[in-house]
Amino acid sequence: MAAIKVIVDEGLKIALSAVRMAVKNDIIVGALGDHADYDPERYAATARHELHLLTRQNEQYARRVKDLRTELTRSRWTSDLTEDQHHDIIQLKLRRRVHEKLAEALEAVAADDDKVARLVRRAQRAASDEVSDAVSSRLIRLNIDWHDPDYEARREARTEVFLHIDLALLKLKHDAATDLSASDY
Length: 185
Hints:
The protein is mainly alpha-helical. It is elongated. The two termini are about 25 Å apart. It has helices at about 1-35, 40-75, 85-110, 115-140, 150-175. Helix 1 packs across helix 4, helix 2 (about 40-75) packs across helix 4 and helix 4 (about 115-140) runs antiparallel to helix 5.
């Protein structure tokens, strides 16, 4: 049973990381693409949606693995099964249990408002960091020597780009600074 718990815990960490990434991407698209204000409820709904998708996926995997195991064990000549096939029967049972437990763990996270809120806050910080890095890189590329003859002609366009990106970045950083918790638990 301890092996299953370890596998489920690791699977949950991977799943939560995938959910955080999906929420982070939604935050970035919302802020920069849609010019939407940050709405923690919207992103909590995104997180729950992703968690429910992963739950259903694991439930489907558990059913499929159960069916495979049932098919293999229904063989009329189970005594004729190879050692590998006997091992497969054991592994399929383990896989089914892991998928079932992981589905339960994902649903538990989706039902816990505090865990979802922490997940969203971490996604928000990741989005803020990613946008900040992109802005820094962009600003370095936009840096032009004021002695350049085209400096004045390009100044207005550079200023506008800077303002749009910088304002979005400041908003994300402000929102991220309001809560510094670093764990989903």
